[in-house]
Amino acid sequence: MLSEKLSLYSYCKNCKVNCCKGTPRVSEKEKEKILKKTKKDYFKKEALGYYVTRKEKGFCKYFKRGKCSIQHAKPIDCILYPIDPIYNEMGEISL
Question: What is the span of the domain harbouring residue 81?
């Protein structure tokens, strides 16, 4: 089916949790939202003004018990996966 080939459904339907194996870029605002909910700081500051999540055993440290523990505050980088947005020098997504 053509529409299935053009959607992310075909990428995600056989989930192997690839989206949780990366190191998503996180803005200051997203970081604060996650910290407010979890009280767990697993972030590392990057040179371009954004943060990345630390990894443990090949997965994002917020990946717990086989699922995302920050689903309620998931950063845009995770939401858009496998699309890799382009960030400007201020650490914001360039549209």
Answer: 22-95
**Which pLDDT band holds residue 1 (cuts at 50, 70, 90)?**
very low
Predicted TM-score (pTM) of this structure = 0.77
Q: How many structural domains does the chain have?
A: 1
pLDDT, position 22: 82
Is residue 3 assigned to a domain?
Answer: no
- The SS3 assignment for 30 reads helix
Nearest Cα residue to 76 out of 57, 50, 58, 56? 50
Nearest to 24 by CA among 72, 64, 70: 70
- Cis, peptide link before residue 82, omega less than 30° from 0: yes
Task: Tell me the pLDDT tens digit for each residue of 37-52.
Answer: 999 999 999 877 789 9
Neighbouring residues of 47: CB distance < 8 A, sequence distance ≥ 6: none
Q: Which residue has the tokens 């890799």?
A: 84
Question: Is residue 29 domain-resident?
Answer: yes
Q: Token digits for 90?
A: 């201020």
